[in-house]
Amino acid sequence: MNKHLTDEQLVMHFYGDDEDRPGVASHLESCAACHESLVALSSLLTTVKDSPAPEPLHGLEARVWAKLQPSIARVPKRRWFFFPVRQWVYAGIATAALAAAFLLGRFSPRESVSPQSVALSPGVRERILLVNVADHLERSQMMLVELLNATDTSQIDLPRERQKAEDLVTDNRLYRQAASRDGDVATADVLEELERIFLEVGNAPDKWSDADLKYVHDLIDREGLIVKVRVLGSEARERGAHNTTDSLVPTI
Amino acid sequence: MPTSNHQMEEGDAAIVRRVRNGEVEAFRILVDRHSRALYALAQRMTGNAHDAEDIVQESLMKAYRQLDRFESRAEFGTWVHRIGVNCALDHLRSRKTRDAVLAPAPEGGESLPETIASSEPLPDQRLADRQIRDHVQCALGTLSESERTAFVLRHFEDVPLSEIATVLGINENAVKNTIFRAVQKVRRAIEPVIGELR
Asked: What is the pTM of this model?
């Protein structure tokens, strides 16, 4: 090996991924220029590797635990067994009017427009986004209804539901983040409730007990989530259908 | 970079046993011990603080759900870290499909993080370290998704080429090329900064 080593050979040698490692090592012993190049590269890459890890905002562990605990702590408690599940459905419907009123403002015009909103507005991208959001909410609603209609675990195709949940959770997260960034707390809250259900189902164990199903029913029933999702979805679809370049800036 | 627990009063394995025996609140200890390492991994892979926190949450949820599958001979930190890598990869795949519709997050790696402009007084070395960290993050932001994934997995996580090839769906030679391109970009971005700081 008389020629100098290439940059690529040096990089691969640094990682131990070179094909002719003994040959490269032998060359490095006899070639001061290549040796010097490797020392410089190693120094830089080691500095990069040893650089401090990215820091989260203060309180990461507490935030993570606050989100995990409700799911984790539920196993030994299971207090929801004492409540007839369907009762929650009616309670949810009874609060639907309040929920709808609560959500009505989220597509309202805004006096100030965030940079993110400018990036999404106006025109076709808005429409595409709204239609995507509406589709996502419709698929979410269908899944919630399917789960709610199952009276026992034999009526659920768990692998299929799990796959659907995994597919939905990632989209849902992006929409939730967009809503949060845009200050649309109401929409973000609904999407967060949805996300929790998707995570529950997506991470469900291989065998689901009736207790697990009832817990998911409880999550869905709580505060009339299906109604909220339906209202959100239909409004997004309506806005998507009528949106023009000079129309309102969407909040999600 | 799984968290080492050699010096901890109670090892992860003992905590896992407590959780398995029904003391579910003990899982909080594992959350406290491993969240930051998971965050660092996720932040490097996604370049986005919100995504990174979501990935931490999802990874730990999956770990809890799959705790029965965890073999006590293994290191919990290594195991949960692996789950974190998979969650981050899933997240990147999904984000890719949405990029055409959603605007990029404001905290994307194209601009320097605020910490560079921070006037918070720090000892020189710490300031230099933080500046290097921020420039590394910025440099990672200039990489394509496959370059970033390959580089982070190989450089920070010591994942072998064969596994990266599987993850990216390309052959090992292509992985080598991808890592080389990434190193060149990182080098171009970092070299002048290190020269100034040191």
From this structure: 0.56
Query: Does B8 contact A at CB distance below 8 Å?
Result: no
- Selecting from A54, A65, A71 the residue whose C-beta is nearest the C-beta of B133 gives A54
A90-100 pLDDT, tens digit per residue, is 334 433 434 44
Task: Indicate which CATH number applies to the domain containing B129.
Answer: 1.10.10.10
Domains identified in chain B, total number? 2
Provide Rg for chain A, Cα atoms. Answer: 27
Note whether A172 and A198 are within 8 A (CB).
yes
Distance, in Å, from the CA atom of B132 to the CA atom of B142, rounded to the nearest integer, reads 15
**A177 touches B: beta carbon within 8 Å:** yes
Within an 8 Å CB–CB cutoff, is residue B52 touching chain A? Answer: yes
CA distance B39 to B56: 6
Q: Measured between alpha carbons, how far is A110 from A126 in angstroms, rounded to an integer?
A: 15
For chain A, positions 182-241, list CB contacts with chain B under 8 A: 199, 203-205
The tens digit of pLDDT for each residue in B134-145 reads: 888 889 989 988
ipTM above 0.85, yes or no: no
Unique residue bearing structure tokens 């965890």: B70
